[in-house]
Specification:
The chain is of the alpha+beta class. The chain contains nine helices and nine strands.
Amino acid sequence: MSVRLQSNYLTEKFGNMKFEGNVSRSMSEDSTDSDFEVRVIEEEDKSSVIDLARRFFNRDEPLNEYIGLTGPDGKCSDLEAYILSTLEEGTSVKAVADGKLVAFSMNGIVGKDDPNEKSYVDSPKFQMILDFLLYNTVQCDIFGKYPDIDKAMTVKILSVDPCMRGRGVATKLVDETRRIAIDKGCKLMYVECTSHFSAQIMKRLGFEKIYSLKYSDYKVDGKVIFNPKQPHEEYTVYVQKL
């Protein structure tokens, strides 16, 4: 059990944890287009990433929405520190159209021997989500399922501006993440999905589902904690060997 973490330490400490990969629920990925570029996210992109997150992911991700994690402004300092926690690894990617950041995939490398420790944040609602994710990380046991693999690339959060729907943006972000993962020596790539739509995208991109938990089956003190609206019924993990 780790000691309580203050908010200004979240970015450093969360680098050893995992988060679900999600795509904004209003997005579809059925075609490709060439009016955007995919690049690695840099330090100067922080404000643009957070701005996009506040407008879509922070409010619309199924668990965030269900528990009312943010207000109308989409702000949650603990979540935002988490989103940026792997930025310095140089593994996260963005899509840029007309000079504007329109999508991002926040990625990180997870090692076989990295500890799965509980972290504590100031937001009680975000703490609920972190506890849920940690529970699933332990239950899924990625490296137990793949004992020959010592490090993997995880897609923590994938979010796309709805104005870019149908242009293959998520596909290109995943492709670039895969390229970086291979370059970094990762033999596996995985995505933790809390959204039905992100799970469907991973399935379509050739990822294999290796774990799932229905929200109705996750209880604390006998009480169901999350009951997002349909069609979001379960948490899933999708993997692809590299």
